[in-house]
DNA sequence: GCCCAGGGAATCG
DNA sequence: CGATTCCATGGG
Protein backbone atom coordinates (compact mmCIF):
# COMPACT_ATOMS: atom_id res chain seq x y z
CA UNK A 1 0.00 0.00 0.00
CA UNK A 2 1.24 3.43 -0.94
CA UNK A 3 1.67 5.72 2.06
CA UNK A 4 2.30 9.46 1.74
CA UNK A 5 3.18 11.87 4.52
CA UNK A 6 1.91 15.39 3.93
CA UNK A 7 1.96 18.18 6.49
CA UNK A 8 0.62 16.40 9.54
CA UNK A 9 -1.43 13.89 7.63
CA UNK A 10 -0.98 10.37 6.39
CA UNK A 11 -2.54 9.61 3.03
CA UNK A 12 -2.94 6.06 1.83
CA UNK A 13 -3.94 4.85 -1.59
CA UNK A 14 -7.08 2.75 -1.14
CA UNK A 15 -10.16 2.65 -3.29
CA UNK A 16 -13.62 3.12 -1.82
CA UNK A 17 -14.56 -0.30 -3.03
CA UNK A 18 -11.74 -1.81 -1.00
CA UNK A 19 -12.39 0.17 2.17
CA UNK A 20 -15.40 2.42 2.52
CA UNK A 21 -15.23 4.40 5.75
CA UNK A 22 -18.86 5.50 5.70
CA UNK A 23 -19.97 1.88 5.73
CA UNK A 24 -17.18 0.46 7.86
CA UNK A 25 -17.69 3.03 10.62
CA UNK A 26 -21.47 2.90 10.56
CA UNK A 27 -22.30 -0.75 10.09
CA UNK A 28 -22.89 -1.49 13.75
CA UNK A 29 -19.50 -2.90 14.68
CA UNK A 30 -18.27 0.25 16.46
CA UNK A 31 -20.17 3.00 18.21
CA UNK A 32 -17.88 5.99 18.69
CA UNK A 33 -17.48 7.43 15.19
CA UNK A 34 -19.45 10.27 13.71
CA UNK A 35 -19.66 11.48 10.14
CA UNK A 36 -19.54 15.20 9.43
CA UNK A 37 -19.27 17.30 6.27
CA UNK A 38 -15.47 16.84 6.14
CA UNK A 39 -15.27 13.18 6.95
CA UNK A 40 -15.26 11.16 10.13
CA UNK A 41 -14.21 11.68 13.69
CA UNK A 42 -14.05 9.12 16.44
CA UNK A 43 -12.28 7.87 19.50
CA UNK A 44 -10.65 4.47 19.74
CA UNK A 45 -10.02 3.60 23.38
CA UNK A 46 -8.18 6.85 24.25
CA UNK A 47 -7.06 7.91 20.79
CA UNK A 48 -9.04 10.52 18.87
CA UNK A 49 -8.83 10.25 15.08
CA UNK A 50 -10.10 12.32 12.18
CA UNK A 51 -10.37 10.79 8.73
CA UNK A 52 -11.50 11.78 5.29
CA UNK A 53 -11.95 9.79 2.12
CA UNK A 54 -11.90 10.43 -1.59
CA UNK A 55 -12.45 7.91 -4.37
CA UNK A 56 -8.92 6.51 -4.20
CA UNK A 57 -7.44 7.80 -0.95
CA UNK A 58 -8.00 7.83 2.79
CA UNK A 59 -6.42 10.60 4.86
CA UNK A 60 -5.57 10.15 8.54
CA UNK A 61 -5.41 13.70 9.86
CA UNK A 62 -2.84 14.78 12.44
CA UNK A 63 -1.24 11.37 12.33
CA UNK A 64 2.41 10.39 12.05
CA UNK A 65 3.72 7.58 9.93
CA UNK A 66 4.68 5.77 13.12
CA UNK A 67 1.13 6.10 14.53
CA UNK A 68 -0.24 4.73 11.30
CA UNK A 69 2.14 1.79 11.05
CA UNK A 70 2.01 0.95 14.74
CA UNK A 71 -1.71 1.24 15.23
CA UNK A 72 -4.14 2.47 12.61
CA UNK A 73 -2.99 0.22 9.79
CA UNK A 74 -3.79 -2.82 11.86
CA UNK A 75 -6.89 -1.30 13.50
CA UNK A 76 -8.47 -0.81 10.08
CA UNK A 77 -7.36 -4.29 9.05
CA UNK A 78 -5.33 -3.16 6.07
CA UNK A 79 -3.16 -6.25 6.35
CA UNK A 80 -6.02 -8.50 5.27
CA UNK A 81 -6.60 -9.10 1.57
CA UNK A 82 -10.27 -8.24 1.21
CA UNK A 83 -10.15 -8.60 -2.57
CA UNK A 84 -9.29 -12.24 -2.17
CA UNK A 85 -11.93 -12.72 0.52
CA UNK A 86 -14.63 -11.10 -1.57
CA UNK A 87 -13.66 -13.25 -4.53
CA UNK A 88 -14.41 -16.30 -2.40
CA UNK A 89 -17.61 -14.79 -1.04
CA UNK A 90 -18.88 -14.15 -4.57
CA UNK A 91 -19.00 -17.88 -5.22
CA UNK A 92 -22.14 -17.78 -3.09
CA UNK A 93 -25.04 -15.93 -4.72
CA UNK A 94 -26.40 -14.37 -1.52
CA UNK A 95 -23.00 -13.21 -0.35
CA UNK A 96 -22.34 -11.91 -3.85
CA UNK A 97 -25.40 -9.70 -3.56
CA UNK A 98 -24.28 -8.45 -0.16
CA UNK A 99 -20.73 -7.75 -1.38
CA UNK A 100 -22.05 -5.90 -4.42
CA UNK A 101 -24.41 -3.93 -2.20
CA UNK A 102 -21.52 -2.57 -0.13
CA UNK A 103 -18.09 -3.93 -0.86
CA UNK A 104 -16.02 -1.61 1.28
CA UNK A 105 -16.56 -3.12 4.72
CA UNK A 106 -13.49 -3.80 6.84
CA UNK A 107 -13.60 -5.47 10.25
CA UNK A 108 -12.10 -3.16 12.86
CA UNK A 109 -9.65 -4.66 15.35
CA UNK A 110 -11.11 -3.11 18.44
CA UNK A 111 -9.99 -3.18 22.03
CA UNK A 112 -11.38 -6.26 23.74
CA UNK A 113 -12.57 -4.50 26.88
CA UNK A 114 -14.30 -1.76 24.92
CA UNK A 115 -15.94 -4.34 22.67
CA UNK A 116 -17.09 -6.39 25.63
CA UNK A 117 -18.74 -3.48 27.41
CA UNK A 118 -20.17 -2.07 24.18
CA UNK A 119 -21.78 -5.27 22.98
CA UNK A 120 -23.14 -6.09 26.39
CA UNK A 121 -24.95 -2.75 26.24
CA UNK A 122 -26.06 -3.54 22.68
CA UNK A 123 -28.33 -6.41 23.64
CA UNK A 124 -31.98 -5.96 22.70
CA UNK A 125 -31.17 -2.36 21.86
CA UNK A 126 -30.96 -0.23 18.73
CA UNK A 127 -27.79 1.30 17.34
CA UNK A 128 -28.57 5.02 17.92
CA UNK A 129 -29.44 4.30 21.53
CA UNK A 130 -26.36 2.10 22.02
CA UNK A 131 -24.20 4.99 20.84
CA UNK A 132 -25.90 7.36 23.26
CA UNK A 133 -25.48 5.02 26.21
CA UNK A 134 -21.78 4.49 25.45
CA UNK A 135 -21.17 8.22 25.06
CA UNK A 136 -22.75 8.89 28.45
CA UNK A 137 -20.68 6.10 29.97
CA UNK A 138 -17.48 7.60 28.56
CA UNK A 139 -18.40 11.10 29.64
CA UNK A 140 -19.12 10.01 33.20
CA UNK A 141 -16.18 7.64 33.74
CA UNK A 142 -13.56 8.22 31.05
CA UNK A 143 -10.65 10.67 30.96
CA UNK A 144 -11.32 13.93 29.18
CA UNK A 145 -8.77 13.77 26.37
CA UNK A 146 -9.77 17.07 24.79
CA UNK A 147 -12.59 19.58 24.92
CA UNK A 148 -15.72 17.55 25.60
CA UNK A 149 -14.10 14.37 24.29
CA UNK A 150 -13.74 11.36 26.50
CA UNK A 151 -11.68 8.20 26.39
CA UNK A 152 -13.37 4.87 26.87
CA UNK A 153 -13.23 4.20 30.61
CA UNK A 154 -10.83 1.65 32.07
CA UNK A 155 -11.84 -1.24 34.33
CA UNK A 156 -10.58 0.75 37.32
CA UNK A 157 -12.63 3.78 36.38
CA UNK A 158 -15.76 1.70 35.93
CA UNK A 159 -15.33 -0.22 39.17
CA UNK A 160 -14.24 2.68 41.40
CA UNK A 161 -17.54 4.47 41.40
CA UNK A 162 -19.45 1.23 41.10
CA UNK A 163 -23.21 1.04 41.12
CA UNK A 164 -23.32 4.57 39.81
CA UNK A 165 -24.57 3.59 36.40
CA UNK A 166 -27.94 5.17 37.03
CA UNK A 167 -29.41 7.57 34.46
CA UNK A 168 -27.08 6.32 31.75
CA UNK A 169 -30.15 4.82 30.14
CA UNK A 170 -28.80 1.30 30.33
CA UNK A 171 -32.00 -0.19 31.68
CA UNK A 172 -31.67 -3.70 33.03
CA UNK A 173 -28.18 -3.96 31.46
CA UNK A 174 -26.90 -1.93 34.38
CA UNK A 175 -26.41 -4.99 36.57
CA UNK A 176 -24.78 -6.87 33.70
CA UNK A 177 -22.19 -4.11 33.43
CA UNK A 178 -21.55 -4.29 37.18
CA UNK A 179 -21.03 -8.07 37.05
CA UNK A 180 -18.70 -7.77 34.06
CA UNK A 181 -16.58 -5.05 35.57
CA UNK A 182 -16.24 -6.83 38.89
CA UNK A 183 -15.27 -10.14 37.27
CA UNK A 184 -12.49 -8.41 35.37
CA UNK A 185 -11.43 -6.33 38.35
CA UNK A 186 -10.98 -9.37 40.59
CA UNK A 187 -9.27 -11.29 37.77
CA UNK A 188 -12.00 -13.89 37.50
CA UNK A 189 -11.98 -12.91 33.83
CA UNK A 190 -8.63 -12.19 32.20
CA UNK A 191 -9.01 -10.73 28.73
CA UNK A 192 -5.35 -11.42 27.95
CA UNK A 193 -5.90 -15.11 28.61
CA UNK A 194 -8.97 -15.12 26.41
CA UNK A 195 -6.70 -13.92 23.61
CA UNK A 196 -4.77 -17.19 23.86
CA UNK A 197 -7.74 -19.52 24.22
CA UNK A 198 -9.26 -21.77 21.56
CA UNK A 199 -12.48 -20.15 20.42
CA UNK A 200 -14.88 -22.50 22.20
CA UNK A 201 -13.12 -22.07 25.52
CA UNK A 202 -13.09 -18.30 24.97
CA UNK A 203 -16.83 -18.38 24.29
CA UNK A 204 -17.47 -20.39 27.42
CA UNK A 205 -15.38 -18.06 29.54
CA UNK A 206 -17.04 -14.92 28.23
CA UNK A 207 -20.45 -16.42 28.85
CA UNK A 208 -19.78 -16.75 32.57
CA UNK A 209 -20.39 -13.00 32.65
CA UNK A 210 -23.99 -12.14 33.38
CA UNK A 211 -25.56 -10.60 30.29
CA UNK A 212 -23.15 -12.29 27.87
CA UNK A 213 -24.92 -14.96 25.85
CA UNK A 214 -24.02 -16.59 22.52
CA UNK A 215 -24.55 -13.51 20.39
CA UNK A 216 -22.69 -10.99 22.53
CA UNK A 217 -19.85 -13.47 23.10
CA UNK A 218 -19.38 -13.88 19.36
CA UNK A 219 -19.49 -10.12 18.78
CA UNK A 220 -16.76 -9.68 21.38
CA UNK A 221 -14.71 -12.48 19.83
CA UNK A 222 -15.09 -11.08 16.33
CA UNK A 223 -14.68 -7.37 16.98
CA UNK A 224 -12.61 -7.41 20.16
CA UNK A 225 -10.37 -10.41 19.53
CA UNK A 226 -10.46 -10.60 15.73
CA UNK A 227 -11.65 -14.20 15.78
CA UNK A 228 -13.03 -14.26 12.25
CA UNK A 229 -14.62 -17.63 12.87
CA UNK A 230 -17.05 -16.07 15.35
CA UNK A 231 -20.52 -15.71 13.81
CA UNK A 232 -22.85 -13.50 15.84
CA UNK A 233 -26.50 -14.32 15.23
CA UNK A 234 -28.74 -11.34 15.94
CA UNK A 235 -32.24 -10.61 14.71
CA UNK A 236 -31.00 -9.61 11.23
CA UNK A 237 -28.78 -12.65 10.75
CA UNK A 238 -31.66 -14.83 11.90
CA UNK A 239 -33.62 -13.40 8.98
CA UNK A 240 -30.73 -14.15 6.59
CA UNK A 241 -30.45 -17.73 7.77
CA UNK A 242 -34.16 -18.30 7.59
CA UNK A 243 -34.64 -16.63 4.23
CA UNK A 244 -31.47 -17.64 2.36
CA UNK A 245 -29.68 -20.43 4.21
CA UNK A 246 -32.34 -22.81 5.51
CA UNK A 247 -29.76 -25.61 5.47
CA UNK A 248 -27.17 -23.64 7.38
CA UNK A 249 -24.39 -21.24 6.47
CA UNK A 250 -21.86 -22.76 4.01
CA UNK A 251 -19.21 -24.70 5.91
CA UNK A 252 -16.42 -23.64 3.56
CA UNK A 253 -16.58 -20.09 4.90
CA UNK A 254 -16.19 -21.16 8.51
CA UNK A 255 -12.73 -19.63 9.15
CA UNK A 256 -13.92 -16.22 7.91
CA UNK A 257 -17.65 -16.53 8.54
CA UNK A 258 -17.56 -13.53 10.88
CA UNK A 259 -16.41 -11.28 8.06
CA UNK A 260 -19.08 -12.69 5.77
CA UNK A 261 -21.58 -12.13 8.55
CA UNK A 262 -20.79 -8.42 8.63
CA UNK A 263 -21.48 -8.05 4.90
CA UNK A 264 -24.77 -9.89 5.34
CA UNK A 265 -25.74 -7.89 8.43
CA UNK A 266 -25.24 -4.60 6.66
CA UNK A 267 -27.00 -5.80 3.54
CA UNK A 268 -30.06 -6.94 5.45
CA UNK A 269 -30.30 -3.69 7.38
CA UNK A 270 -29.99 -1.41 4.38
CA UNK A 271 -31.34 -3.26 1.36
CA UNK A 272 -34.29 -1.87 -0.58
CA UNK A 273 -37.15 -4.33 -0.64
C1' DG B 1 -49.75 4.06 21.68
C1' DC B 2 -47.29 0.39 19.25
C1' DC B 3 -43.45 -2.23 17.54
C1' DC B 4 -38.85 -2.98 17.52
C1' DA B 5 -33.84 -3.06 18.61
C1' DG B 6 -26.71 -6.44 16.85
C1' DG B 7 -30.46 -10.83 23.50
C1' DG B 8 -30.16 -13.11 27.77
C1' DA B 9 -31.82 -15.04 32.26
C1' DA B 10 -35.24 -17.47 34.48
C1' DT B 11 -38.68 -20.61 34.24
C1' DC B 12 -41.32 -24.42 32.56
C1' DG B 13 -42.37 -28.62 30.06
C1' DC C 1 -32.78 -30.28 25.75
C1' DG C 2 -36.32 -26.43 23.35
C1' DA C 3 -39.92 -23.02 23.91
C1' DT C 4 -41.82 -19.04 26.46
C1' DT C 5 -41.75 -15.01 29.10
C1' DC C 6 -39.97 -11.07 31.10
C1' DC C 7 -36.72 -7.55 31.21
C1' DA C 8 -35.79 -1.21 30.76
C1' DT C 9 -35.49 2.20 27.47
C1' DG C 10 -36.39 5.22 23.72
C1' DG C 11 -36.20 5.67 18.40
C1' DG C 12 -39.27 5.53 14.51
Task: Provide the fold topology.
Blueprint: E1 3-6, E2 9-13, H1 21-24, E3 33-35, E4 40-44, E5 47-53, E6 57-61, H2 65-75, H3 82-89, H4 93-101, H5 112-121, H6 127-141, E7 144-146, E8 149-150, H7 155-160, H8 173-185, H9 191-196, H10 199-206, H11 214-225, H12 235-244, H13 257-270
The protein binds a DNA duplex (13 and 12 nucleotides) through helix 6, helix 8, helix 11 and helix 12.
Account of the 3D structure:
The protein has 273 residues and is of the alpha+beta class. The chain has helices at 21-24, 65-75, 82-89, 93-101, 112-121, 127-141, 155-160, 173-185, 191-196, 199-206, 214-225, 235-244, 257-270, and strands spanning 3-6, 9-13, 33-35, 40-44, 47-53, 57-61, 144-146, 149-150. The chain is built from 13 helices and 8 strands. The chain has a 6-stranded antiparallel sheet with strand order 1-2-6-5-4-3, with no helix packed on it. β5 (47-53) and β6 form a beta hairpin. α4 crosses α13, α5 runs antiparallel to α11 and α10 crosses α11. It is globular and about 50 Å long. The model has no long low-confidence stretch (mean pLDDT 96). It binds a DNA duplex (13 and 12 nucleotides) through residues 28-29, 119, 122-130, 132-133, 169-174, 176, 210-216, 219, 232-237, 265, 269.
Beta content: 5-15%
Overall pLDDT, averaged? 96
Number of helices: 13
Structural class: alpha+beta
Q: Order of SSEs, N→C?
A: EEHEEEEHHHHHEEHHHHHHH
Report on the biggest sheet.
Answer: 6 strands, antiparallel
Helix content: 40-55%
Which descriptor suits the 3D outline? globular
Amino acid sequence: MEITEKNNDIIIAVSKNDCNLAVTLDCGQCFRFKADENGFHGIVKDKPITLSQSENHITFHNTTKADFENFWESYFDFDTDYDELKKQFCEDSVLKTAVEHSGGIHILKQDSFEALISFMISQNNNIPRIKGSIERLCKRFGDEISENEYAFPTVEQLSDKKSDYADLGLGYREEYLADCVSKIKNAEIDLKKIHEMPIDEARKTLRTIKGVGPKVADCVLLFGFYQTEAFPIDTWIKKVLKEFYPNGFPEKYKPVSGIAQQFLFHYMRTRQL
